[in-house]
Amino acid sequence: MVTILNNEGFEVLAGELLSEIGLGREVREPGDFGAPPDDTHAQDPLVDLPTRREAIPGDEQLGHAVRLIRLRLVEPVRRLAEAERIAGRIQDSMEPSDKGSSVRVAFIPVADGDPEESIRKVPAGDQEDADELARILAAISPEAE
User: Considering only CA atoms, which of 7, 3, 13, 20 is closest in space to residue 60?
Assistant: First the structure.
């Protein structure tokens, strides 16, 4: 999976995936906010307590990787498409239209302030690619749903 991500231009995600699997999963302790019940800071969410981690067994690593990819790729695209559809409904409620439009959401780089040409080739509000990736990920690892 890491090789595929690297070859497709997602080197940062591949590195994050390796780091996450290398670190292992967080293990919650009994008590609030992951703290043991006898800890005096157990009730204080502002106290940053150390996190205990355990290795992810080899047979669970693929499912963990699929969940991380879904979290980093699929869900953000779905949320962006949803935001574009909501923005379109708001615009349509202020300026009635027959077409039920979506509004393209673009992010402007802070450094130079000039918007770059959109690399997104799909219509505003479209999440078909994210849904297709979700289907592929579910086929690879059904238990990661």
Answer: 20
What pLDDT is recorded for position 32? 46
Tell whether 31 is covered by a domain: yes
Which residue, chain included where needed, has tokens 């290398």? 22
Q: Are 9 and 26 in contact (CB under 8 A)?
A: no
Tokens 């498409």 map to which residue?
A: 81
pTM of the model: 0.66
What is the spatial distance between Cα 44 and Cα 48, in angstroms, rounded to a whole number? 9
Q: For the chain, what is the domain count?
A: 1
113, two tokens:
């302030």
Name the strand (E) or helix (H) holding 86: helix 75-94
Query: Is 8 part of a structural domain of the chain?
Result: yes
- 39: exposed, middle or buried (Cβ count in 10 Å: 0-12, 13-18, 19+): middle
Cα dihedral across residues 92, 96, 100, 104: positive or negative: negative
Listed as ranges, residues in the chain with pLDDT below 50 are 32
Q: State the residue range of the domain holding 20.
A: 1-55
Instruction: Say how far apart CA 56 and CA 89 lie, in whole Å.
Output: 44
Asked, for residue 102, whether it belongs to a domain, the answer is: no
